[in-house]
UniProtKB/TrEMBL annotation:
Gene3D superfamilies: 2,3-Dihydroxybiphenyl 1,2-Dioxygenase, domain 1
InterPro entries xrefs: Glyas_Bleomycin-R_OHBP_Dase, Glyas_Fos-R_dOase_dom, VOC_core
Protein's name in the database: VOC domain-containing protein
Domain VOC: 5-121
Originating organism: Candidatus Lucifugimonas marina
Phylogenetic lineage: Bacteria, Bacillati, Chloroflexota, Dehalococcoidia, SAR202 cluster
Length: 131
């Protein structure tokens, strides 16, 4: 198993509209939204070299900043099995397809508490088109 690239970076923000406006200036475009508009997916519009950011409006008890790093893998289920075989990594749940994003995901924490996700787009997802 190896990381094939970065799938997305998930960031918790205090003001969603200000953050969307900020990232638009870097060429990012809203791609879709979930959670009644409190989560917005942004991307650079380039299918050959995609960059994706997921912005979450801060909820009580959440710390601002990066929530998790999501890495693209061939198959999150196989990747998790391989890592579990090697030992020393505890996963938060069995891999599953997140219906909103259409990604099959598997999450764990690195030694310093950074949440690491392995993901693969496995369906179109149900999040709403932005515009």
């Amino acid at each position: 198993m190896k990381f094939l690239g970065v799938d997305h970076i998930d960031i918790i923000v205090s003001d969603l509209e200000k953050s969307i406006d900020y990232y638009r200036k870097f060429g990012m475009h809203p791609e879709g939204t979930v959670d009644n508009g409190e989560t917005v997916f942004l991307w650079n519009g380039d299918d050959d070299n995609p960059v994706r950011i997921e912005l979450h409006k801060q909820q009580d008890g959440q710390t601002l900043g990066i929530d998790h790093l999501s890495f693209l893998v061939d198959d999150p289920t196989d990747a998790q099995k391989e890592i579990e075989f090697l030992g020393g990594v505890e996963f938060l749940f069995e891999p599953f397809e997140n219906q909103q994003s259409g990604r099959t995901i598997s999450n764990s924490y690195d030694p310093d508490g950074v949440q690491i996700q392995m993901a693969r787009q496995t369906s179109p997802g149900t999040y709403k088109n932005w515009e």
